[in-house]
Amino acid sequence: MKPIAGVLLLFAAPFAAGSTSVADVAGPGRPALVSVVNPTEITPARLSAALFLETNRVRRAHGCQPLRPLPELAAAADDQATYMALTLHAVHESGFYRQRTVVDRVQRRGLKPAAVAENVASQPALRDGQPADCSSIAASLVEAWMNSPGHRANLLNREFTHVGCAARLAPGFGHIEYVFGAQVFSKILPPELNL
Predict the structure, then answer these.
(1) How confident is the model at residue 33 (pLDDT cuts 50, 70, 90)?
(2) Rounded distance, CA 119 to CA 12, Å?
């Protein structure tokens, strides 16, 4: 695990088979960091929605069926986005109890999918050196995932039926806020087969 060094960090992991808020990562006694993002415009909920829309836009552009949203997958993605924002590391493993792997996180949310995959990344909350909006942040994350073979394979996998997306902001290095994004993909079996 390497800390952010001012570049986009990408990780992809395919696997077979309570949302926490990041209120103040700086904490008491640490200097206040200058935010480049207006917090009234960029929220985790808006970022997550933009990431979901951009994911399906790209899938459609590549001839794939759009993925359906699933709150349990979004919660699993948010678990990891939150962990990454708290630790300032883009990683697949988590130190949170019962959340070490994406499979753990999905099962913790009550699902037993046939297959699971996860994309995670971090990047500065800037676009071309300027403060970004939710759509441009989502487009930048998805574009980076599409430029990486493992992430692209997860994003365009035709076997997956559902996705959960999440993104969190955290003060990072150099007085710049960073975005930590996560996508959790799955193939959900019909209830009678999801034993």
Answers:
(1) very low
(2) 5
115-124/126-127 β-pairing: unpaired
- 67 vs 52: CA distance, rounded Å: 9
pLDDT value at residue 82: 87
Residue 142 DSSP SS3? helix
CB 30 within 8 A of CB 115: no
Whole-angstrom distance, CA of residue 110 vs CA of residue 115: 14
Torsions phi, psi of 145, nearest 5? Answer: -65, -40
pTM: 0.73
Strands (E), the chain: 9-16, 68-69, 115-124, 126-127, 130-131, 162-171, 177-187
CA pair distance 2, 89, nearest whole angstrom: 7
